[in-house]
Design a protein that fits this description.
3 helices; 5 strands
Length: 157
């Protein structure tokens, strides 16, 4: 038997070694550890932007609604602004929940309603949103980082 024959008799290696697989898994875990928190923060930020936009939509809708219904004033319930009540806002917002936020709408006084309050609170604070928002007939949106927002909280800049 010659030396060349022995070399050709070695079986050929196929596949990956255990070390190579462990290195690939470690790299994937490191990338995931970096990407997932950034993704969650981006999702919270997007939900907050949607909540502020929804509050603006309600405020604008209230102006249109009260102009179209001067004997009623502002809408009695949020659903009055939805598709069944005039189509000023979308059905999700009219139902009181949108993009990880719950919207609480109340009117003040009797008809014609001249004041309303609107709160937007994350359904799960720290997961779907970090801040709560508040607005009323003054059309100023306010926020609070730890509790439901109120008229005394600072406005969004």
């Amino acid at each position: 038997m010659r030396i060349g024959d022995r070399i050709s008799m070695k079986r050929e290696e196929q596949g990956f070694s255990l070390i190579e697989l462990l290195i690939v898994v470690a790299v994937i875990l490191i990338v995931a550890a970096i990407a997932i928190p950034n993704f969650l923060r981006a999702k919270i930020s997007a939900n907050e932007a949607s909540a502020v936009s929804s509050i603006h939509a309600v405020n604008t809708s209230e102006i249109s609604y009260s102009a179209a219904n001067p004997t009623i004033g502002f809408a009695a319930v949020l659903a009055d602004l939805g598709p069944a009540g005039g189509g000023y806002i979308d059905s999700l917002l009219a139902a009181g929940t949108k993009s990880g936020y719950s919207f609480t709408y109340t009117v003040v006084g009797a008809t014609p309603y001249t004041q309303y309050k609107l709160n937007a609170d994350p359904t799960t604070r720290g997961v779907t949103g970090a801040r709560s928002f508040y607005s009323d007939a003054s059309n100023v949106t306010r926020y609070n980082d730890v509790a439901p927002a109120a008229v005394t909280d600072p406005p969004i800049q």
